[in-house]
Amino acid sequence: MCPGTVQRSSSSLVSLIVTEASAQIVHAGQACVVKEDNVSERVYTIREGDTLVLQCLVTGHPRPQVRWTKTAGSASDKFQETSVFNETLRIERIARTQGGRYYCKAENGVGVPAIKSIRVDVQYLDEPVLTVHQTVSDVRGNFYQEKTVFLRCTVNSNPPARFIWKRGSDTLSHSQDNGVDIYEPLYTQGETKVLKLKNLRPQDYASYTCQVSVRNVCG
Known about the structure:
four-stranded antiparallel β-sheet, Ig-like_dom, axon guidance receptor activity, MAM domain containing glycosylphosphatidylinositol anchor 1, Cell_Adh-Cytoskel_Orgn
């Protein structure tokens, strides 16, 4: 080395930090925790025809990849084969058949993938169908005759509908009128209510209305 010559050397240390993927599902609208059969789960409610938007917020390094999948509403149904590789899942005009459990899976090759899920409950209420049935009993000739009319109201809905029967503008209740009976037939699952008019009286000849509504499962 020559006198007066200065020699410098430098080195740099690069530190690479990797972290496992994490995920969180966020959305606009109403969600709640519903307990069924002693099992609690998070439920997001939406009306049929509205737009579903679910966002999977992820963290991790490298940046995780996101995949959306779903199962249908029935536990016996299989996973849908189609998947969405995007952090935001958007379904325009959602249909009742698109309800079910949606899964967000985030993975970046570090550790195990992060999986979050939410159940989407699509609510709907179809027009009710009203049918009329009549029975006539004739005992001992003309000494006894009974005419009974059954008004049957059926509707497809989710969740099960609430029924109100009206005669004119008056709400009917078998606790207030012993001439009527309101019940759910056997082997139905909340989609039908029957109004029984027992031994028709003069006031029973009137106009009847079946009003149906649904209650949001989140209150």
